[in-house]
Amino acid sequence: MALVTTTEMFRKAYDGGYAIGAFNVNNMEIVQAITEACKKENSPVILQVSRGARAYANHTYLMKLVEAAVKECPDIPIALHLDHGPDFETCKSCIDGGFTSVMIDASSKPFEENIAITKEIVDYAHKYGVVVEAELGTLAGIEDEVKVSAEESSYTRPEEVEEFVTRTGCDSLAIAIGTSHGAYKFKPGTNPQLRFDVLHECEKKLPGFPIVLHGASSVPQEYVQMINEYGGNMPGALGVPEDQLREAARSAVCKINIDSDIRLAMTGTVRKYLTENPADFDPRKYLKAGRDAIEAMVRHKIVDVLGSSGKAE
Prior knowledge:
Blueprint (H helix, E strand, L loop, with lengths): L6 H10 L3 E5 L3 H14 L3 E6 H7 L1 H14 L5 E8 L2 H9 L4 E4 L6 H17 L3 E6 L4 E3 L2 E3 L9 H11 L3 E4 L20 H10 L5 E3 L7 H9 L12 H8 L3 E6 L1 H17 L6 H24 L7
Parallel strand pairs: 1-2, 1-10, 2-3, 3-4, 4-5, 5-8, 8-9, 9-10
Antiparallel strand pairs: 6-7
Helix pairs in contact: 2-4, 2-12, 3-4, 5-6, 7-8, 9-11, 11-12
């Protein structure tokens, strides 16, 4: 099976009341762990690449890793997506370079400017059969080069979504309902709550249209504790409760982005391994441990959060 777009994935997810996991990839071990988990759970998947990942690993290396994953998992629908494309040039490079989906993030711009920038990408991408995700509303937090303060963040305004989608022609829409980028999404001691009222209003305005949640890592506390126990320093890291993500997946949310949880699983496990095996210096040993941890975490997300197990039809 060749790389696919998200069009059919999202149609089935919308009708079936589940979401597709969009997992950020940066190296071989992460690609292997995610796709092996999906193969075992028979789940479709979106492999996401950020601008930072392309700068770190190089576009060509990432493409070859994804090609290998497609070859090793021939029965699993795999889409390759640009996460938070900052401008036309980056999106064009990914479209021309074999991606099947791109996100243009002009959410920090005024409404009319966001529309104009998004439509330019849509017009180019659709000529080549590539789908486009856009964003309306602004998420707080830090992810690679994306840095937005809490003061600068804003919830999506449901009254704007229909006009935005109609005028841009985008294929999916990321909205802001209280998720945020990074591992520090909520303050300790608070009761994290997503704005399902905003989500449901957007659903009403866009019946049948796929919605995306960014910044949706749950920040598993076992990995935060593991990192802190084995020499790290992550006090107060807190994510989105998984039961709320599962509720979102039953709605119009067809794509849920997960990045920080992957980083936490690998970092915590590698720290633990190196502490417990101080004489080892073979990267294959500690990276394998990290890879296994990511695979287990992704399988959990597929089964218990996304609901996409067995949906690779």
